[in-house]
Amino acid sequence: MIRATARTYGDDVDTDVIIPARHLTSRDPAFLGSKCMETVDPHFATRIDAGDVMVAGRNFGCGSSREHAVLALQGAGISCVVAHSYARIFYRNALNQGFPIVVCPEAAKAAKEGDPIEVDLAAGTVTVAERRFQAQPFPAFLQQLIAAGGLVPFVRKRLSEQKGAIA
pTM to 2 decimals? Predict the structure, then answer.
């Protein structure tokens, strides 16, 4: 369960806005987080509290295919993104990095900057200022992948468990 403050943005937030290309010389989440959203919100990194939830409109994460965008959001302290919809490549990059994202058009439309927001990934619910919305929960497999921290840690864990079972 994620309980936090909503940080709201509109439609078509692209990966160049999330993390400008000039900062792609690093993969350090803390560094990338300090530069996250700087072109549209210069104080973003200093006003985010660890665990805040980004809420956006349609086509979040469009643009260049870069996993740095997910790393920047994580490094800034964003715990989850709730959006009307996602660009396919961002959606995949988020899951690969173990970063929870939720598709919930109604919650994305209802949320205002600073609203209290609660996200229950297992149930697929998003509560914005005491209004509950139902999203599609991830299947158990994807919940396990997110809990493991992403695709690589998930696969490592599975291979380790299989190796132990064979021995």
Answer: 0.93
Query: What is the separation, in whole angstroms, between the first and last Cα of the chain?
Result: 37
Domains of the chain: 2-166 (3.20.19.10)
Pairing mode of beta strands 116-120, 2-8:
antiparallel
Instruction: Tell me the pLDDT tens digit for each residue of 27-66.
Output: 999 999 999 999 999 999 999 999 999 999 999 999 988 8
CA angle 147, 151, 157 (to 5 degrees): 70
Render 70-109 in DSSP notation, one character per residue.
HHHHHHHT--EEEES-B-HHHHHHHHHTT--EEE-HHHHH
The residue written with tokens 């996602």 in the block is 86
Q: With CA atoms as reference, report the closest residue to 93 among 57, 56, 68.
A: 68
How many Cα atoms within 13 Å fall on the side-chain side of residue 65?
A: 5
Amino acid in position 7: R
Cα–chain center distance at 14: 13
Amino acid type, 142:
L
Say what the alpha-carbon torsion angle 136, 115, 52, 83 is, to the nearest 10 degrees.
40
